[in-house]
Design goal:
Layout: E1 25-31, E2 36-41, E3 46-51, E4 55-60, E5 79-84, E6 90-94, E7 99-103, E8 113-117, E9 119-120, E10 123-124, E11 131-133, E12 139-141
Antiparallel strand pairs: 1-2, 2-3, 3-4, 5-6, 6-7, 7-8, 9-10, 11-12
Length: 175
Amino acid sequence: MMKNAGNIIDDSIDLEVLAQGFEIAEGPLWVASKKMLLFSDVKGNEIYSWTEEAGLNTFLSPSGHTKIVPYFEGGVLGSNGLALDLDGNLIICQHGDRRLAKLSFDNVSQEGVSAIIEKFKGKRFNSPNDLTVAPNGDIYFTDPPYGFCDIANSDPSKAEMIFVKDLQEIPFCGI
């Protein structure tokens, strides 16, 4: 258990580490119907699940980069943001595949992953990152260039990020 989480959480609350050792953990999603936490390890290219009964497991691998589209080899390519659509399907922001994808919990496999949207005005997205699903089912997502981030030559601790534009088709980031 951990104490003193700062001003965000009251000091009387005990925090418990459920799992560790991930490279870039993002996109946490609680799936109430399954009593399951899902999250992406973006650099590890995996989605993990955690339940009280089973603990930590790999849910989908690869999760965001299957080499189906042009990509920057040194980028951050796995899945990131996760959400549920109105039908309870998993919506995945896939950095490497440069799209939004859908996965039914009835077919958790690569074959069960299907594209929702891959392009804007005929051009591939940069790297869909975070998302939300509105009450009417509309999906809003961000599209930064993280899939083109040259990790080997960047230093995030100094806010020095180098982005490679060779394969970038949309010259701007958007929502």
